[in-house]
Amino acid sequence: MAEGTVKIRKFLGTYPVSVDKQRRLTMPRAWRLPTDTEDTAFYLMPGPNHLIMMVTEERMNAVVQGLEDRSLMNKDDHLSKTYLASQSQEIQLDKQGRFQLNQNLAKYAQIDEDAVFLGSFDTGTIAAPGNWSEEDTSSESIFDRFLAIEDAIRAHKANANTGK
Length: 164
Prior knowledge:
This protein is α+β, with helices and mostly antiparallel strands. It has two domains: 14-132, Chemotaxis protein chec; 133-164. 34% of the residues lie in helices and 22% in strands. It has four helices and eight strands; from the N terminus they run E-E-E-E-H-H-E-E-H-E-E-H. The strands form two sheets. It has a six-stranded antiparallel sheet. It is globular. The model has no long low-confidence stretch (mean pLDDT 88).
């Protein structure tokens, strides 16, 4: 990497891990940056299908800032935000890259003795081995959805460049 180049965190790969008696898991070394310290924060929140999403502090800040435009009086928005925020967890890694998964998230994701970290490019995913199987995904629908995401990003960038 060239000097002065900022390394962007990427959540890639599949990493099975054991969970110890204190519900500690070890974040994959490939997901950690040399600039991470014990003060580097990550956030865990419940995701679809009993999966746990792991996001960086920067990503969480962007989510919270995006929510500021929502009405405080919208009941459905408020209930969704309250549920997700009350079930979410801020974590810092120890020197070995470990963190303790809180009881609510462990129960939600059905994580007991084993877990698997799954890369999701800009987020990490943590699952109980029985809740994730590559066979559960249709490769055609996955590729079609990713193409749609890329197309939406290109359209957004084109609109931003033309001032639309």
